[in-house]
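ingest -> fold -> write
write: protein_1
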Amino acid sequence: MSIRVAIAYHSGYGHTARQAQAVASGAASVPGVHADLRNIAVLDEPLWQALADAQAIIFGTPTYMGSQSAVFQSFAEASGPVWARQGWRDKLAAGFTTSAGVNGDKLNTLSSLAVFAAQHGMHWVSLGLPPGWLYRTTGTADDLNRLGGFLGAMAQAPSDAGPDDAPSTADLRTAEHLGRRVAQVAVQLRQGRLVGAA
């Protein structure tokens, strides 16, 4: 039976959608893992069922005004019935976000996603990469984790650049790394649970 990793995201202008696709590509690169991209702008039964069936959910949202988008917040609040029955308890969780600013207060958004996951009783998976780019004098803008995040994958997309041009390749590769890491942890967790059950 394959492991399902759901990528539950909102994208206002297409930039976060590109980041979500990179996350899905990374997750799908792990043998035995199926990546399921889900746009949370439509809160329908297929969405909730897909998230119920997933072993891991990676949350994604643009950062607007220093926090997650209103669409993502509506999804979070609509998950109240799932919380009441502890439907996502012990699933893996992770997060990613995009903003126009290099900083853009993306950490606040990722922190909000981690708290949201914790309220659902989920296990948060960090990015697991050292910082790149300006962390060392030898760094370049092509480094993985060039924005130096730890809690999740960060991306930057200039406000006057379309989704065909941004986020950068480095940010998309960082998102791909996050998807792969979550999928690998999901595989390890399933193996451990199978051993424990035996």
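write: protein_2
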Amino acid sequence: MARKSTDPPADLLGPVQGEVSWFCCGTAWGPCSSTGKGACGTCNSGNLQHAWPNTSDACWDITRPDRCGVSLSRRTCGYRHRITALCSGTSVVTAIADCGPQTDLFCGESSCCGATCASNRLIDLTPAAYSQIASLSSGLRPCEISSA
């Protein structure tokens, strides 16, 4: 019997660690000028949203986290993840609104706070979401990603 699309695949029953960064989309907000609405057509810098590297086959062909040794579940527009900053323990729940980051360009890249580190850019948050867990000036932070 086929799995219902709302059932999480086994590989996302537990959290994954990686780097979180931020990006601009949609209408102007904070440090962002107006730009495109992202792959889902709903992305706005002032909303609690994120880009995910495996939203579709076309997205996967661009981002390729598997080239960094990371297997990520297929999740589509609107799916909610909880992103927890490993530096502070604060978290934010966001919805997928775009494809990205291009993980394979950053294989092995690492960000740390003290002795706490994580490698490979796995998720991009809008500035509104990123500012909930870290200062925008930090640019990259180690995080844990789980289903919301």
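write: annotation protein_2
The helical segments are 57-63, 127-133.
The chain has one domain: 37-147.
pipeline exit 0
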